[in-house]
Structure formats: C-alpha cells, structure tokens
Amino acid sequence: MSDTFLGMPAFPQAARVALHNTTLRANLRHATHTIRAKRAQAVAELSDWEQLRDAGRQIKDHTLRHLDRYLIQLEQAVTESGGTVHWAVDADDANRIVADLVKATGESEVVKVKSMATQEIGLNEALAAEGITAYETDLAELIVQLGDDRPSHILVPAIHRNRAEIRAIFTSEMAAWGRAAPDGLTDSPGDLAEAARLHLREKFLRARVAISGANFMVAETGTLVVVESEGNGRMCLTLPRTLISVVGVEKVVPTWRDLEVFLQTLPRLSTAERMNPYTSMWTGTVDGDGPQDFHLVLLDNGRTDVLADAVGRQALRCIRCSACLNVCPVYERAGGHAYGSVYPGPIGAILTPQLRGTTSAIDASLPFASSLCGACYEVCPVAIDIPEVLVHLRERVVDQSGAGHRTESIAMAAVSWALRHPSVLATAERLATTTRALHPRRPPGVRAWTAGRELPELPAQSFRDWWKENHR
C-alpha cells in the first residue's frame, strides 16, 4: 500500500469498499464508541463547558481576523529567543526548507513527533528522496509506518487496527527498522507498548535531529506547545541538538492566557482526560538545555485561500481534537482511508477541499460525504458549523462543474411560469391526479438525489378540487 493518498478513488467508491470490510467496521465501532462515551463523561464534569466552547470560538475568530499581525509578532518573539523562522508557501517549499536544514547538519535520519502538517505535505516521502530516513515515534504512527499503511484518524492514526494485527506488524517488520520485536510477543497492550518502547529508545538516544509540529504557538512569547500522551514528544523535543517544527499558520494564539481555554477543552475532547499527560513547551533555545538550534517553518499551503472565504474559514479554528470523527456515523462505517486525505472525517470533508481545491474527483466528493446530521457541530470545542460549510462547499462543487445546471434551470423556469398562471397550474394538478397510477416511484434524471428517496403518493383529489366541492 502506498504511503500517500495520491491517486485514491473518490469517496463513494472508497467507502463502498470499506463497508464490505467487516474487521475494519468492528474495529472502528468499538474504538469510536469507547472514546465517545468517555468524552461525554469528561465533558459532563464541567458546568461551564458551553462558555469554554464559545471562548475558544471567539479566540480563534479574533486571531484569524488579525492573523497577519500575530504571525509577525510570533516571528519577532521566536527570533529574539534564538530561533529561526522560515515561511513556506506550499508543500514543496516546506519540504525543501526542511530537507536543506537536515542536510546542513550532516545527519541522515530524524525522529518525529506526530505531526499532521508534515503528513499533509508528504514530508517523510520528500526526505526519503533526499536520502534521509524519518522515524515516527508516536505509537500509532509507528504502527502505521511499520505496516506501510496510511493514518485513518486524527488522534489515533491506527484506529483501524486491532491488537492481533499490531502484534503481527511488530513481529514481521520491526527488525527491518531497528530493534526487533521480543521473542514470544503477545497482543496484550502492555507487551505491545514495551516492544515499541524498546524499539524507539535506541532511536531517541541516537538522533541528533528532531521534527515536530505544534498544537499551539503563542504570539506574545514565541512559545510552541505540543500535547501528547506517551512521552515520545518530550524525548524528541529535549534530546536532539536540532529541532525543526513545521506548523500551519492558523495554529497561532495571541497570549498565554488563551492557552487556558484550549488546555481544558482539548484533553477532554480528544482523550477524555482532565489534563494532558505530557504538555511540552519551548521558547527558542537555551544554552546547555535542550536543542541548540531551533527552526520554525510556518506553513501556508492553501490556508490563506481558506481565510478569504467568509464561510469556509471557520475550518481553520480546528484544534485537531478528533471529536467530530468519533460521533460521525459516516466515518464510523467508512473509516478514515476513504476520505483520501490525512484529515479524515467531518473536519477533513471541509478542510481538505479548501486546502487542495475541488478539481480532483476525490476532493470534489468530500463535501458530500456526510448525512448533515449535525453531531459534529454539537461536539466541536470551537463551534465549527461543519454542516454549514459542507453545504457551502457543495454549492461550490456544483457551480464549478456545471453539473445539472441546464436541467435544473429548465425545471425551475417551467415551475415559475406555471405558478404565475393559476389556470395552467390547476390543469397540471388535475392531470397529475388523473395519471397518478402511471407515475414512476422515482423521477428520471436525478438518480443521485432519488436513489434513497421516493416520490410522495398523490391523493385521489387535489386540494383545489376539494375546496371547490366543500366551499361553494
């Protein structure tokens, strides 16, 4: 299986294949329902949850309105603290910058903190083309990498794998990447975690270069923040000499005080914890402590285009908690791979088409990968109205393709003319009633809309005729 999502089919085709994978559906159902129940319990503990949610929305909206100012402030603070800031217009630009920085150190391998931004730009593949090996250190990302797989969830990239599958991957693939799995490895969570710990510890102690993303960047101090649950991030962010962080420009927040809101909402929504187990923060460089060279690559890659859309820009509020995936009935059945993007689920259905455009079949299909039930909006910690953006993007796709416009225009013109002529409308009603036995159950020409719907049955008498008979 390819390491990237390039060349995947549109969502309807990919989802149809996934629906027939009973193991995948069982794994997803068990995992999402477990996370969903724990999340609900964690949120219920807070009496001011809705206020926190609204505060997160306001902070993000304010920051996006003044993004230029806060990014400049961030650059100044990072530079004053001993770091170096690089601006990347797109994926190629960011990959070139990172590859050049790694090659300048003379190293041929790097350790990585889980980062969706680097997955978005295909950094691992770009580094491999330059002779540099990137080792994923997050447990789920390690499973995906060893299995030559793709991530299928924002928080738990290997959610589509069960313990038996993970054991098989560790047993067969670990040796090719470093320390082999222990003999007699079982599929118990403790044994699997220990095998990963032993395998990764050698890489942590050997690596001289680390690559990370960031959950937040604080403009007033130039501080970056990474939250994670295993401690691998702490190892990557302290042991190597050189640290390179690739972060989307939307991850900036104005002040330290703003972090208070997100450090309450993010753990409860993502892992159902009151506090995150490991919250690592770093500001530039400090002599003799931690990385001595720090580089921040600020990634655009379509984000300013999203910012220009008054409706679509709310997708940039996302703090990557994955709550929307865990409640989505479509994701639960189709899985993350069907979305053809590093960002699966409801948030991916609105973010990916805006970042990549809707010219490809898969990106044009994503806004339709939803039932518009609204569960995603109800749980979002920054109140992204995902259904609203989905409908907005559906309009864009239809306008761009022109599909159905001629038929729709003719139909609307005919209805408009009939409604302006009562006698014509009355004649049409009588004709429809008289011939109702001959009507098809589904109208022709609009199969995509009527495949799951039937026309309502016409009554034996129109309301107009009934009124005439009973109110002479």
In words, what does this structure look like?
With 472 residues, this protein is α/β, with parallel strands linked by helices. Among the domains are: 241 residues, Rossmann fold (3-Layer(aba) Sandwich); 56 residues, no CATH class. The protein is built from 23 helices and ten strands. A six-stranded parallel sheet has the order 1-10-7-4-2-3, sandwiched between helices. A four-stranded mixed sheet has the order 8-5-6-9. A hairpin with a 4-residue loop joins strand 5 and strand 6. Helix 9 runs parallel beside helix 10. It is elongated, with a radius of gyration of 26 Å. Keywords: 4Fe-4S, Electron transport, Iron, Iron-sulfur, Metal-binding, Repeat, Transport. It comes from Streptomyces albipurpureus. This is Lactate utilization protein.
Short description:
The protein has 472 residues and is an alpha/beta fold. The protein contains 23 helices and 10 strands.
Low-confidence stretches: none
Q: How would you sum up the major sheet?
A: 6 strands, parallel
CATH top level of the domain at 63-303?
Alpha Beta
Compute the number of strand runs: 10
What structural class do you assign from the helix and strand content? Answer: alpha/beta
Using only C-alpha atoms, the radius of gyration works out to 26 Å
End-to-end separation in angstroms reads 74 Å
| Apparent shape | elongated
Mean pLDDT reading: 92
Helicity level: 40-55%
Identify the notable features of this structure and list them briefly:
Rossmann fold, 4Fe4S_Fe-S-bd, 10 strands, 4-stranded mixed sheet, 23 helices, electron transport, 4Fe-4S, alpha/beta, repeat, elongated, metal-binding
